[in-house]
Amino acid sequence: MTNAVPAAADKAASLNAFRAFLGRLNLSTWFGIVLVAALILCAIFAPLLATHDPNAQNILLYLSPPSAENILGTDQFGRDIYSRLLFGARYSLTIGFLAIVVALIIGSVIGMVAGYAGGRIDIILMQIMDVVLAFPSLILGLALVALMGATLTNIVIAIAFTAIPAFARIARAGVITQRNREYVQACHAMGFSNSRTLFRHILPAILPEIMVMASLWMATAVRTEASLAFIGLGLAPPTPTWGGMVREGFDNILSSFHLALFPSIAILILVLALNLIGDGLRDAIDPRLKDAS
Predict the structure, then answer these.
(1) CA angle 14, 18, 20 (to 5 degrees)
(2) CATH no. for residue 191?
(3) What is the pTM of this model?
């Protein structure tokens, strides 16, 4: 009975803190959340929402403009653009999400170990991260995909590799800030292992900053995947991807500009929504950043 009261109090405090956090989210953040949620739902229910098979060709409808039968028109093979956009959302969201999850896990572990250990380990790990940061993310991703091959797994690995240093840096900075706090010293006094102190006590304190970085870098991952597809290093045709659709549309940009326009708008909406979410989460976690700007 005595243990139930503190547990209930902790649960109520956590709930109040979560409600306060939601209250600090501005309108643009909620707008971004709604947009991303809508795109996710479109990707999940693409088979139900699509009006045609995304890979079905009909040469009689070659480069047709938007019409009642084909809402957004057709491409140079007579394929329905609307249906291909819906199925393309699956690949853009999947690649962006998986790449950032991989980068978050690996980069956060590297940064936390470097920040907590300090000394020579910190110097070696962060110098490796600096070497990776020396290459532009698109160029590095392009080189990795060209070496490994343009498969879904390899594209995820390539994009994740370019994002690892960003998560390592933010995790390291957070650990350095937290490692001299009283609760960390209490963990040492109680004989907790370094791994328990690091991952069970310090990690929750720095996780919000890592999640903000994840939302911002997912937008970068989406742009990188679209760029790779645009230059021919995306998933192989006829797989519908937004970047690949933009590249295919450029072959007929003067006569049928809608081929490149609609996938470009889809990429713009997704990247804008993710940036709105990232900026809003950053301001909600630390309102002083908003006041300083």
Answers:
(1) 115
(2) 1.10.3720.10
(3) 0.83
